[in-house]
Amino acid sequence: GNIARREATRLLTERQWKRHAGNPLECVCIADCLARIQRYIVTKLGEDWIFLVLLGLTMALVSWSMDYASAKSLQAYKWMYGELKGNVALQYLAWVSYPIILVVFASLFCHLVSPQAIGSGIPELKTILRGVVLKEYLTLKAFVAKVIGLTAGLGSGMPIGKEGPFVHIASICAAVLSKIMSIFTGVYEVKTNILTVGCAVGVGCCFGTPLGGVLFSIEVTSTYFAVRNYWRGYFAATFSAFIFRVLSVWNKDSVTITALFRTNFRMDFPFDLQELPAFAIIGISCGFLGAFFVYLNRQVVLIMRRPTALTGFLTKHRLIYPGAVTLIIASFTFPPGFGQFMAGEQLMPRECINSLFDNFTWTKIWGSPAPPGLGRSAAWLHPQVSVFVILLLFFVMKFWMSAVSTTMPVPSGAFMPVFILGQPPWWSRRPPQLSRQVQRYPR
């Protein structure tokens, strides 16, 4: 690159000599100034700091924009359902048609613009990081298809998750920014450290967790991880997470810069020693259930790949499968129907996980008049059914729905649905405002 720049400077100087042969001193001065300006721009704008800041800022804006658009879509979804109150037939029609339209649009848009945007993108990214060249996976077309398709999928309310595809989006953004920076540096190459930083930023700006993003990038590139990539990933992920939370404050979604999912456990006595065996049991159970989740998802994919008449028909008509899956899931979650025994489906995904972080002891609340201050957590209470039955039904239904939804040909990732499945709200402790109504531990 340096040799090419010197050669270009020499050719430019000769050209200017021929053009201004009458004043050679002026030509040399102009050529020298141009060379100095070029070296200054290359030195300053070609450094990693500028690239990392631009990557973090871009991904924070993209993440916040997607969250904002999907939240508005879900609000419109709930508003349309509420406005049809009193007519169950129209409510059901609106409840199932809205997500079907968005999911079918996401599938069709990705298929027409960039089929590489379908799915999570993490397996393909791991393949690229191991030296295999996959065409069209790190292009601007894949970026546009991934962002628009994922926003539509999240706005439909389907349990698909955002974090997996966002790692792919961040890697694409890193590759495109690297190409733009080549205007100043003169050399363009998608390096492993650039994609590794993209992985860290993709997780960091979703959850506001820079350390988690760096650790995730290490897991993705487990075969080889250079030490020099630690500070790159951490700096970019920290900057992206900070801007992401600042945008939430600017939009008045939160009062100040805080954690994405807050808790109010006491710091002087955060847990009881008697709870440690229960935490161990939860960890073991989640390990087995996680393996079963992967197995169930794989079986659905293998069934869809079998050479049968049904799979051939679905392959020929690509929009029928996502529409049918969305219809089935929306029918099960219809609130006046079976959805009233799932409770959590009355809440949108972000509201659901926030309510599961609430600090209530359900064994003391159920069966008695609901205390004041429950808020969104009141959706988990049913007058005829125990809260534990509600939670069990929600877990079972959410489990298979998430496993099946991630097989649809749309940008999807199962991180957030799996996090929701791992929330055991009956182990939470009492908040200060309910100290008279409930005890500290659910005995």
Q: Residue-averaged pLDDT, rounded?
A: 76
Number of helices: 17
Largest sheet: none
CATH architecture of the largest domain: Orthogonal Bundle
Give helix % range: 55-70%
What's the number of structural domains? 3
Strand residue content:
under 5%
Runs in which pLDDT lies below 50 for 5 or more consecutive residues are 425-443
CATH superfamily of the largest domain: Clc chloride channel
Tell me the total number of β-strands. Answer: 0
The separation of the N and C termini measures: 70 Å
- Derived from helix and strand composition plus strand pairing, the structural class reads mainly alpha
Overall, the morphology is globular
Order of helices and strands: HHHHHHHHHHHHHHHHH
Rg on CA atoms, Å: 27 Å
CATH topology of the largest domain: Clc chloride channel
Give the oligomeric state of the chains in this entry, treating copies of one chain as homo and distinct chains as hetero.
single chain
Per CATH, the class of the largest domain reads Mainly Alpha
GO molecular function: voltage-gated chloride channel activity
Pfam family, one: Voltage_CLC
GO cellular component, one term: plasma membrane
Subcellular location: Membrane
